[in-house]
Amino acid sequence: MALDPHLLDILACPDTHHAPLEHDADAQTLTCTECGRVFEVRDDIPVLLLDEARPGSGPA
């Protein structure tokens, strides 16, 4: 099952800037367009916890 496109439209980075996220279906990740943090999608559920995100390399 894939993430619902309507959900992807409203998801945002949980950091204070609340930037949009880009979805990579193959890698099962969401990447912040501002800070570059990478959030995993586990069992079709986005894990938007800052403590569990992989560090970003700056703007994506």
Overview of the structural elements:
- With 60 residues, the chain is α+β, with helices and mostly antiparallel strands.
- Helices cover 10% and strands 25% of the residues.
- It is built from 1 helix and 4 strands, in the order H-E-E-E-E.
- It has one helix at 5-10; strands at 21-24, 29-32, 38-42, 45-46.
- The longest helix is centred in the N-terminal third of the chain and has 6 residues, at 5-10.
* Overall pLDDT: 92
User: What is the string of SSEs from the N terminus onward?
Assistant: HEEEE
> Based on the structure, what is the oligomeric state of the protein chains?
single chain
> Ends: how far apart?
26 Å
State the secondary-structure class: alpha+beta
Low-confidence stretches: none
Radius of gyration: 10 Å
The strand line-up of the biggest sheet is: 1-2-3-4
Q: Tally the helices: what do you get?
A: 1
- Percent of residues in beta strands? 25-35%
Brief summary of the model shown:
With 60 residues, this protein is α+β, with helices and mostly antiparallel strands. It has one helix spanning 5-10, and strands at 21-24, 29-32, 38-42, 45-46.
